[in-house]
Amino acid sequence: MKIGIIGTGPVGGSLAKNLATLGHQVKVTNTRQPAELAQKAKELGASPAALQDVVQDVDLVFIAVPFKVLAEFPKDLFRSLPPEVIVVDTGNYYPFRDEKIDALEQGQPESVLAAEQLGRPLLKAFNNLLAETIASGGTAPGTLGRIALSIAGDDARAKQILSDLCNDFGFDVVDGGSLADSWRQQPGTPAYCTELTAPELTQALANAVPGKAPQLRDQIISELLQREAWPTREEVVAGNRARQLGKE
Ligand SMILES: NC(=O)c1ccc[n+]([C@@H]2O[C@H](COP(=O)([O-])OP(=O)(O)OC[C@H]3O[C@@H](n4cnc5c(N)ncnc54)[C@H](OP(=O)(O)O)[C@@H]3O)[C@@H](O)[C@H]2O)c1
């Protein structure tokens, strides 16, 4: 597939590298000057592109930037794309980083607001895995304990294409419902960065309680920010399982 990725941080970079390794044609963008972007793209096995170009002539776009950045994109960036181009929001909203956004504070699902801001239907996926898990947590189909991710969105065709891609990438997939349901995989929910198998993730999505996650999300971040060293992937997942699932 031809894939454009906005953002080359831990999430966008991991997606780009693994997708290029799988043989996809990947182009990436970030905020750097052309020479630095070109160097980053080379490291990832991708091509460099300006923001306006990274979404052109592709089958699929991944958006991997902090939530607050979406409002800064040019208004026409996505609106003119052909409808068959699949746009995937991998992002999460963290008020400590993105500043408080009223609609999200009032409970609007993050990707519903993102779709409004971008003027375009979206799928939400990969947001419930740590970047390190995206980078190296994938396994072959059928592997015992294979980690699953959730795809939420309203376009069945787009979901199927992304689901096949995620399976090739190394993860089982569960249907996270409509984009309006995507609050069930936001930070602080049982589905969020708890590294579950497909049946466990399906249950975790069902167990999410409306309005409960933001407080837990902020509590977890506040604890993380007080630590001297950032925890390992295993420590984050164990902590999330303890607090979000009530089990070690
Ligand atoms: N880190 C995780 O474990 C994780 C896991 C799942 C989901 N998420 C979510 O996924 C999103 C990305 O996470 P991340 O950790 O990769 O973020 P990050 O480290 O902040 O990287 C963001 C990337 O976006 C680029 N960027 C920012 N503004 C841009 C703009 N206006 N145009 C083009 N590129 C722009 C940055 O460019 P520069 O490189 O030039 O600064 C950077 O490459 C966030 O919403 C995050 O909450 C994170």
From TrEMBL:
<dbReference type="GO" id="GO:0008977">
    <property type="term" value="F:prephenate dehydrogenase (NAD+) activity"/>
</dbReference>
<protein>
    <recommendedName>
        <fullName>Pyrroline-5-carboxylate reductase catalytic N-terminal domain-containing protein</fullName>
    </recommendedName>
</protein>
<dbReference type="Pfam" id="PF03807">
    <property type="entry name" value="F420_oxidored"/>
</dbReference>
<dbReference type="InterPro" id="IPR036291">
    <property type="entry name" value="NAD(P)-bd_dom_sf"/>
</dbReference>
<feature type="domain" description="Pyrroline-5-carboxylate reductase catalytic N-terminal">
    <location>
        <begin position="2"/>
        <end position="93"/>
    </location>
</feature>
<dbReference type="GO" id="GO:0006571">
    <property type="term" value="P:tyrosine biosynthetic process"/>
</dbReference>
<dbReference type="InterPro" id="IPR050812">
    <property type="entry name" value="Preph/Arog_dehydrog"/>
</dbReference>
<keyword id="KW-0560">Oxidoreductase</keyword>
<dbReference type="GO" id="GO:0070403">
    <property type="term" value="F:NAD+ binding"/>
</dbReference>
<dbReference type="InterPro" id="IPR028939">
    <property type="entry name" value="P5C_Rdtase_cat_N"/>
</dbReference>
